[in-house]
Structures are given as C-alpha cells and as structure tokens.
Amino acid sequence: MRVGLYPGTFDPITLGHIDIIRRAAALVDKLVIGVAINRDKGPLFSLEERVAMIEAECAHLTEQTGTEIVAHPFENLLIDCARDVGAQIIVRGLRAVADFEYEFQMVGMNRALDDTVETVFLMAEARHQAIASKLVKEIARLGGDVSKFVTPRVNAALRDRLG
User: Is the pLDDT of residue 69 over 80?
Assistant: First the structure.
C-alpha cells in the first residue's frame, strides 16, 4: 500500500490545500494529512477545529477518489511522523519560487535523516497559487471577502471566529 503524508498547519484549510489533496490522492492508496500542532505559530483555530475542518472538507474526496484520506495531528519531526504513519512519500505543495528554496532545504535535511522517504512536489492550480492561510486570515480579520479562497464551511468558521 502506497501511503503519502501531506503535512501543514492548515490554519485554516484553503482551496489550494484541497487542490493538492485531491491531486495527491491520485498518487497513493492512503493519504495522511499531517496537522502540525506548532504552538509557535499561534494558530487561529485549535488543533481539534483544524482536524475537524480537514475531515469535513475531505470526506467527499475520499468518496470521489477511492483513496483513504485521514487527518493525523503531529508535533514531532516530519520524517518521524512519516515513519509513524508508514508513509513512503511526503507531499508538498508549491506556490512560487520562494517556496521551492525553503522546500529544497527541507528535502535535503529529510533525506539525510531517512533516505527511504521521497518528497513529491505538486504545484497548485494557477487559480490557487496565491492562496496562503496567513493571507486568508489577514483578509478575513480586516473584513474582506475570502470566499474565493476557502470553502463555504471554512468561510463561516472564519466569520464566526473573527466576528
């Protein structure tokens, strides 16, 4: 069984994330969405809320693709999380060249820690490339419309949280 791990903070999950999840599901039999706890980032949504959002948004993708998609919180090294869930592949989404520079360093470090786990990069669809959770939260905080960047359910959660 091919298992992939798509890690991130997902605070909140965006249409860009969902696009990468949908396409990654075609590459593996099981896709684990690794939800980073990362207390240093001070997430807007709790871990439980982020996991629930991912599960709600990905339920239809499991039905559409036939790939098992599960959310898995983690707070350890990414490569250790990959081992914990039995992933042979780490999936990373790229938006721009700046992403690649950081990701290139991460791949090198992860390969040094465990060279049996491959990293696969997927480019977000053009219409989703500029979407970043951080920017979505900032727009929502300032009263802007984020409906082009998130699902209606996530949009409602942002409005509820930010007033």
Answer: yes
Instruction: Dig out the tokens for 161 from the structure.
Output: 């949280």
- From the candidates 22, 128, 133, 137, give the one annotated as an active-site residue: 133
Per the annotation, the verdict on 46 as an active-site residue is no
pLDDT at 100: 82
pLDDT of the residue at 39: 73
Catalytic residue among 30, 72, 83, 95: 95
Say whether 95 is catalytic. Answer: yes
Tokens of 61: 């993708």
Q: State yes or no: is 133 an active-site residue.
A: yes
Sheet holding 89-94, edge to edge: 68-74, 30-36, 3-8, 89-94, 118-123
- Rounded distance between C-alpha atoms, residue 110 and residue 107, angstroms: 5
Q: Which of 94, 120, 105 is nearest to 5 (CA)?
A: 120
Confidence of residue 126 (pLDDT cuts 50, 70, 90): confident
pTM of the model: 0.94
Length of the chain: 163
Interatomic CA distance for residues 85 and 32, integer angstroms: 8
Assess whether 17 carries a catalytic annotation.
yes
CB atoms near residue 57 (< 10 Å): 24
